[in-house]
Amino acid sequence: MNQIKKWMAGALAAGLLLTFAACGGETASASGNSGDFSASENTSHSGDGGASSGSGEGVHLSNSWQTEDFVIAGFSKDGPGDFGYQARLTSEEQKQLSSLLQTDSWQEAEPVEHGLSSVLDLCDEEEKRFLSVYDGGDLGTLIGLRDEESGESWLFSAPGQVLEDAKALAQPLEERAKGEQTEGTSSGSAGGTEVLFPQLLSDEVKASPLYAEALTRPSVIIFDDQPVTSRAVVDRFLQGVEEGGDGELYLYSFITPGEERSCLLIRLTSKDGKVTESLASDRSWDKGLTFDNSYAVTKIQLTEYGYLTYEGESSSEPTGYQVVNDRELFSDASQRQEMKEKYMDPIFPTALSGHWDDPADMSLLWVFEDLYYYENGGSPFDEYGTDWPVEEIVALLSRYFDGITREVILSEEMASAYDSQTDTIHYEGGRGGGPFCLRATSWETEGDLLILHYEHYDCATGIPYENEQSLLTIRLMEDGSFRYLSNEADN
What we know:
23% of the residues lie in helices and 31% in strands. The protein is built from twelve helices and 25 strands. The protein has helices at residues 2-14, 91-100, 160-182, 203-206, 209-215, 232-242, 333-344, 364-376, 380-384, 390-398, 406-409, 412-415; strands spanning 27-28, 36-37, 58-60, 70-75, 85-88, 107-108, 117-124, 129-135, 141-147, 153-158, 219-223, 226-227, 247-255, 262-271, 274-282, 294-302, 307-312, 315-322, 387-389, 418-419, 424-426, 437-446, 449-457, 464-476, 482-489. The strands form five sheets. An eight-stranded mixed β-sheet has the order 12-11-13-14-15-16-17-18, sandwiched between helices. Strands 5-4-7-8-9-10-6 form a seven-stranded antiparallel β-sheet. The longest helix is centred in the middle third of the chain and has 23 residues, at 160-182. It starts with a helix and ends with a strand.
């Protein structure tokens, strides 16, 4: 980014960032014209953070700029506008950018000599095109464009909402950009490991020798199923494979089930574009891991949902790992995660594995087991053995569902397992079942009802299954608690 710093410094000295020559104001329809600088139509999540929809007349620029040209956000580090901190826009952030850059609302503006405060600065991949959104004070919101190759520059006025949207877009970008720089981004043998989300890591992981080792290699670091590193290292490796080159990619998966800790390490090696896989694991983060045999890998790819998938000799089924954090893919990923953790996790998987509008239609003993694990971090077998108190079952389920009574629990299904002398149900387990992956996608409220949309997806690829979308309806109580009302197909 030295070119950016050089240009920005020179532009500041010459007043170029503060004085833009106004363009001729020519406009053209966005439809069917690739030269228009205009927003494409988008669909927003009803939760939060998604892009709003819209399209319209665009400002036609002679060099055919597009909103998707701007992929890098820059923030000041050593001096104003030096792009010393940088972050790459995710696909969802690109949608947000397209939404706020609705050029039909732009007006040609007169040159401004001073008083502009930039809230968002962007550039293209080649560091030749620059876009800034300014808070012009009494002048309102201003948008500046500059072409470094031609030396041309333009200034436009825009509605005040553009400024607010630009600030909202800039905040997570700046946090991510500065997080990369301050939390130990480290160079490795094939471009290094970029930690984008250090806030997701525990102090124990960051202090471990295995974590330090990962930072010295081209690595994906995963902590409790959440990738914390940039997708760039994966893209570089796959590009090398496609070009028939040599390279390595390491996947460090740090796991903390309960009080235990373990690490699964996968090494993918490309030799002339041919990929092999080696595995290692240990119940420790304190020492290097030893790889076992290597296995050939084929059909390696990165899905649109951020999963690295491949087929190989080590497994009869396709293998896949999430290597790109949802925060790089969805602008509202944090809110999605919060909704999932608060409303879906307590009743996972039983109450979300089928549709119902009456809790009595479910296996309530299994739902109790799920809720117990969510609240206590362990199994009811640890406390009650194989005889579970009916009173405790009713009490816990009643905190999450209406209409739970002893009669409902002691249905015909449970009657044979009930012991009236101890008021317990004898249960020895045996639920079974395989991996089951769900993600929240959007939500809305209607009075005191929260309607949460979610989808069932392939755990190896992240790709949603067709016709596997559902909506969970929840009543929000005045005291902050909530009750589950139904789980229905989302048609």
